[in-house]
Structure formats: C-alpha cells, structure tokens
Amino acid sequence: MEAVSLFLQLLVRGLITGSLYALLGVSWGIIYNTTRTFHFAHGFVYTLASYLILALVGLSLPLIPSLLVGLTAATMAGCAIEYFAYRPMREQNASQLSVFLTAMGIMIAGQSLILLIFGPDSRPLEGFPERVISLGPVTFTTIDLFTVVLAWTVIAFLFHFLARTKAGMMIRAVSSNPEKATFIGIDSKKIYLLVFGIGSLLVGIASFLATLDRPANPNIGLHALLISFITVFLGGVGNLKGAVIGGLILGVAESLVIMVLPTEYKMIVTFFILFLVILIKPEGLMGKKSV
Amino acid sequence: MEYLSHTLNLTFIFVVLTVSLNLILGYGGMASMAHAAFFCIGGYVSTIVTMHFDWNFLAGVPIAVIATATFGGILAAPFIRVQEEYLILFTIAFQMVIFHLMLSLYNITGGDSGIFGVPKPEFFGFQVETPAHFLPFMALFVIIVYWVCLKVTKSPFGRVLKGIREDERAVTSLGKNVMRFKVIIFMVGTGIAAGAGSIFAHYTQFISPAIGSLDESILIIAMVVLGGTANLWGSAVGAFLLIIIPEILNFLPGASGLIVPLRGFIYGALLILFMRFRPEGIIPEYFRLKRSKKKSFTKEDSLFDVNAEKDLRELSGFKKDADHDPILEVKGISKSFGGIKAVDNFFMSLGKSKITALVGPNGCGKTTAFNLVTGFLKPDNGQIYFQDKEITNVPAHRMPHSGIARSWQDVRVFQGMTVLDNLLLASQNQSGESLLKLFFMPWQVKKEEAVNLRKALSYLEKVGLLEKASEIASSLSYAEQKLLAVARLLTTEAEILLLDEPSSGVDPNWVKQFMNIIKELAKSGKTICIVEHNLEVVREISDTVYFMAEGRKIAQGSAEELMADPKLAEIYFGI
Description:
Chain A is an all-alpha fold. Helix content of chain A is 75%, strand content 3%.
C-alpha cells in the first residue's frame, strides 16, 4: 500500500517535472528543427531570463511586470544571438562545428558574466502564493499546479500557432524543406529569426517557472540546456510532438528511478535512456527515418 | 621556483591533452566533448591498479592507456557512424554519465573528496618528489606524445584521415573503411588523454572527479580550437595561453575571487571571436615558417621496377584470378526509393578489356546502377558477379580491392591535398595505414611508400599531369582535375573502372585527350564502363552500348546500331 502511494506521488512529481521538460524540449526543438543550429547558448538565455526577473523583483518591481521584462529580454537575446553570431557564420559557410563552438563560447562567456555580476549564491524568487495541496496520497504545491497549467497552455498555443497561422506554416515549410521553401518565396532568414525569438520566449517562461520552484544560481542554464536537447533527440528530430513526449518520459523516468536507486543516479538515468534510444533508434522515438 | 615548475608541469599535461584531442577533433573531424572524462578515467584506472595491487606506476600508466582506449572505442563506435550532431550528443552524454558515476561510486572513487595518497612515481629506486624533479619527465612525456602524433598524422594513415575530412564518400570509393580510421584515431586520442590522466594523478598524488567535468572538456576544446585545429604545434600554443592568462590574472590585486568567472569570460569570448574572424586558429593547418621548395618530378622518377611491384603485390596477398569473360555480370538488379523504381530488373555484362557505355535520358537510372554495382547502394533484389564470384553484398570500401573502382560525376578530388597525395591515398593495402605496422615495421612502410610514389608518378605521366605532381589539387583547372580523378582511379589498380561522365564539362580539345586515355586503358587490359551524355564520345570509343530508360535496359548493341534506331532517338531526345 505504501509502495503504491509512493509510486503515485512520484508519478505525479514526474509529470510535473515532465511538463517543464516538455516546454524546454519544444523551446529548443523549434529552433533546432528549423535551423539545424546546435544552439548551445540556449542555456545562457535561460539563465539570463531568470536573473533578470530576479534582479527586477529585487528592485521591488512587482512580479508580473518583472516577468514581462524578463521574457522580452530573453526573446531579444535569442534573436540577437541568431542575428549577430549564427547568421554571419552561416553566410560565411562556416562548418557546423564552428557554429557549435561559437554557441558554446556564448554560453561560457554569458554564464561567466552573470557569475561576475551576481556572484555564485543561490537566489530564490519570492512573491508567488505557495500553498500545499493534498489529494489522497499525492501532495503538490500551488506552484506545481501553476507550472503544469502554464506549461501546457503555452505548448497548446505553440502547436495551434504552427498548425493554423500563416507564420506557423512558413516555419513548418522551412523546417521540412528549406530549399523548396525559398522557391515559394519564403525568406528563411526572417523565419530563422522568428523561431529564435519563439524558442527564447518559451525558454524564458520555462526558466521563470523553474525559478519559482527552486532558487537560481549562475549554473542553472547548463542543466536546462542538457534537458532541452536530450528531449528533442529522444523524441525525434524534426517532430516537435516528439520533444513533448520525450520531456514527459524523461520527467517521469527521473522521478520513478528514486524507487530503486539513490537520488544521485538521476542524471545518469537520464543519459542512459538517451544512449539506449540513440543506439536502438537513432532517429528518436517519434522521428522519421531519413533516406 | 616550485610554483613555476608546477605551472610548467600543468601546462605540459594540458599540452598532451590538447594534442591528443586535436587528433580526434582536428585530424579525425570528430567533436569529442568527453576528453576530460577520459583523462579522469585514465587517472582512476592507474590509481586503483597501483594502490590495490601495490604496483609501480610504470605498470599503471600503460594499463590505464589501453583500458581507456578500448573502452572509448567500443562506446564511440556506434555513434561515429551517424551524423556529427550525434557524436556531440553522445560525447556530452558520456561525459555527464561518467562524471556523475564517479561522484556517486564513492566506494571506488572517493566521491567528491577523491582519493589521496596516489603513489609517487618511482623509477628503479629513484623517487620523484618535487615538481622540479618532475619537469624533465613531463618534458619527456610531451616529446614522446608529440613524436607519436606527428608520426601518425604524417603517415599514410594520416593521409587517409585528411581525405576523410574532405570527402568521406570519395575515400570510401578508393577502398578505405572510413569507420575503421575514425574509431582508431578516436582510440589513440582517448588513450593518450588517459595516459596524461594517470601521470597527473601520480604527480599530484591525488585524484578526484573534479578534473573530469564538462567544464574541463570544454576548456580543452577551446585550447585546441584557439591554437588551430589539425596543427599539432597550435595545440601547445592554445594550452599555454589558456593556462598562463589565469595565472597572470592571479597577480592582479583584488582579482582573487573573480578568477574563475573572468577566465570563463575570456575564453568564451576568445572562442566567439576566433570562430568568427579566424576559424583556423592561431597557427593554421598549413602554416610553415619557411616556404619549402616544391618538389618537382621528372619522367625518370616515374619509371618503376616491375619486380619491386611484384614483391609488393605478393606481400599484400594479391592474387590474380584466371581470366573470365565477361568479367562482370549484373543479373536482374532492382532498387526502389519510396515508390519510385530507380533501377528495375537491370541486366548487364562487361566484356573483358572492352569499353561499355551506359546511355539514356536524364534520370533513367544510370548513376543508380553505378552505385549498386560499386556497393554504395544495396540492390533490393538481383545479383552481381565479378569473375564468377558473387559480390552483391560486398561493402563499397572493399570494392576497389575486389577489383572494381568508380569515379564520380562531380570529380571529388581532394581539393586541399597535392596531386601526388591524391594518388598515394588511393593505393590499396598500404602497411602505413595500419598503426601497428607504422610503429613496429617502419622499414616496410618506407619501402612501400617509395614504390607507391613511383607508381603514382607513372600514372600521372600516363594522363599527362607529371609536372603538376606537387601542386595543390584545387589549383588545377577543371579538366585537369578530371584527369587527376582518372589517374587516382588507376592507382587503385582495379580491373574494372566505372567512369561517371569522365568528359562532361570540359572543352572539345580535352575530350579528345580523355578518349585517347580511355582507349589506351582498354588496350592495356582494363575493363571500362562509362556513363556518358556525349554521343560522339560514345560512338568513338565504346564496343557495346546499353540504352536505359526508366530504370530498365531497353536496347543493347553497337553505337551505330542504336543510333540508327529512330525509336531510341525519340526517347533520348524526347522529340
């Protein structure tokens, strides 16, 4: 009986984490699927959003305006990275590796800058009414509930946007066949900028939700980055639904593993799943085999 | 003094790490994000072996090298096969798993706090104590590593690696197993990193997972990239710079707490700036202090001793089969992509020492047929026989050795290599492509290279490119590059040559030369199959013509017969 309620509790916890991971996954996935840029600097955008919101709240600005400023800044940061760093390199026909290394450079330099300015201490984000909710054997907080609701609302909006709007269809056209998209008059440069904006906005939201739950430190970006691309490759490149599924699987697996292994094996399990999937099905769980 | 010696020793360790990563990243073209993990594993293997069995460190180091290299090779092999991103992904994943495992398995690794009291090195009773004592040994270690790496990169093995970085498919078509080369260089690189790790552990008498973090891996990559990929001297410069800068920062007043973020900011920024404005690094791949004089070769150099060649062939186990005619038979092969039948129940036989042409409208399946015959595609059904042996499922990289080699419509010569190196790479069964032979039978490698050089020059002479032997291939005109491709194909010594549009895109004067060369080749015993659009060429040189349309053979005969048929003309020209 105790095992069952533990299982239920962990499952719910896993789904909550999984919702956040799914959001992280689509935020990186929309960029990668469309531009095929291994956007390592996504982690920096994540950290930046969190620290900006923290700083503004620290200056006694209310939570909502701080959030809006933080998200705007994250969106602009993502676009700026695309515009000033990746685009010129693509135009120079730089190798994929050099683009990746640039992204890594931005990540390292940005993260170090935040560390320089704000110091290494953890900072909690306060101001959200946190209460505990119990439903039978399962307990969670209002923050958890808010996370799940907001994450899925945002994901639903994104899929609606991609399926129903003109801009969304253009994004899908570019990601499925960039060459043909150019032929029918789509400016892929603008689309690239757009997806960097969308992806960065989404990762800003994810960052905000995560910071509500636990204090931020300058290194949070790396973990978020790892999760975002693992979910994408796990679920399947080229299929954004895959990233959602991948995020949920990862969240639940990380949580349930506690039943059999000590907590410090969480990260190992995450990567082990990735290993197995790539080894057995390199195109990912929901990816299409490329010819 | 102690401080200086220690900093120098540390620099030496990082030089070894960057040089070894450069083998993987610069020469192998694979971004490994797990170099620090292998460094750390090496340290732990040696620590555990020497402490547990109370062995000398001279036993610990080689065990660490071999164990880690094997481990790395086995793990990486499945990922090297797939695209570049997957290798990045895999190595990051591997890096994180190893790091967290080392933190978690404290019974073995000591967890966060690591293991103290790793035995100091002892050479035959002489204890190495202070950092200053260590200096000569570290220097020796660096020299050995440099010697090994230079030897590997400047060998026939290194030549193939260079080809792989330029064009994997072209290398495969010349009979090299790309996977094998990539896995081996990955193993060599990780092995050397493990060696550095074990020496580092014995030097500091301490090992902890901290030296095996993702941050360290990224630092090493940054060093390699800043120094210059595929230049071993650049790696030393990169390592030196990124070690020295933070050491200098240390002396700034009030900077003590800011060292880590400052260092991070500086090397992150350097990485961005270099990738944008100087992606080749501080010392680029082809950097030379002095301009070396170009070697020129004369006709005399190209005469080669037939007996020497015979020895060589026997050494490599080459057996010439009895003559078969037709030499190649294709029996009903088919290949579909999705719903489209690119090649449909196709039959063809090549007469020995004859020139066979494949003609047909664009998209009729000629190139697909080539890809099927040379193993680049597997047929859905049907068989292919070469000298009565079935070769249907022989992989592409074994075809030239079996006796079939192909050229490419888009030439695919190695643009960054000299004309001569283009040819030398194509020789089959080179001892210098085996690292074991390279290090343990260097005399054989040397002898072979001398023979291969003469042979290559003789082929260059045959196509009229002898004077250009030392030129970089990219400096050649298009027609010359096409000639080079033919000479390179000859160097494989395959019996059957499949030429994909050998004379397309070159002007009529050159076309004549191509025709003469091809006719010469057939006369000297080569069997030739060409895909060609120029019907003049087809008429002039071919003995048999196959006419293809929609993946099928629809006619076969001499050029005159086929050209006289109005129905074929209609299909061909779409009139």
